[in-house]
């Protein structure tokens, strides 16, 4: 009932500063820190009106069901595939994420990872440290400027990657469900056609069921033995065992991965490969961007608590 206190439920760890501000401003409960979360949900689930969570954790269906008065799910992160938005909307729950503020940093990292993979920067660093240079020069790498780059998923981040690559004189093409208006890049109808038409494939598509395994064995085959794969989206988009097989057989030249199927666990075959750049999901991980993401989370919570609506609702959640 309206007389029960309105609680903000924090579902997963967040930036320390953000946690402190939320706790200072609202009646906040940190679910993940409770000794018995199930008992809390049973006895107090009805008090929760809003949940704050990370892109990685979301709010799963069981938690949604345990919170009958929940009206808002606020994600720290642009991805929100961990929450069933259609189900949430059907229950009258609004969902927000943190778009735009992380676009530049994610795109910067994607380009850095692309250059690392093609020029083999991380491998060359290992080479120097391992004393290899004193024995023989480092093997020649692949040129980046002027190459053909394919962007899989031309959303905000994909476009920011493409804009940066224009500075390298690359020929950019892309694949997305619907061709994007007002871009000078060539649209290709399938991931396979895109891979066949480019030297490097950069994955910036949203995660979730709709894109699972989109980068398949056939797509990697089409990318070819000189091809490079960069993934800053979600591990689920790439068939990881097909990628391992393609790298081992030399069916693609290299990969740079910021995301994995089962983070933080990275398959041993990838750890053992000198052909992959492995990053611990850091594309948005700069002080500036994480602070801006935290600020946007705060503004979403604030708007919801005062006006009952979110500031940056996800597209599916629009009224
Ligand atoms: C995470 C991300 O939010 O925004 C996303 O979708 O994957 C990252 O920025 C970050 O790991 C914090 O949870």
UniProtKB/TrEMBL annotation:
Name listed for the protein in its UniProt record: Hydroxyacid dehydrogenase
GO molecular function, one term: hydroxypyruvate reductase [NAD(P)H] activity
Family, similarity comment: Belongs to the D-isomer specific 2-hydroxyacid dehydrogenase family.
Transmembrane regions: none
Source organism of the structure: Streptomyces spinoverrucosus
Entry keywords, A to Z: NAD, NADP, Oxidoreductase
Every D-isomer specific 2-hydroxyacid dehydrogenase NAD-binding domain range: 112-283
GO cellular component: cytosol
Residue ranges occupied by any D-isomer specific 2-hydroxyacid dehydrogenase catalytic domain in the UniProt entry: 26-314
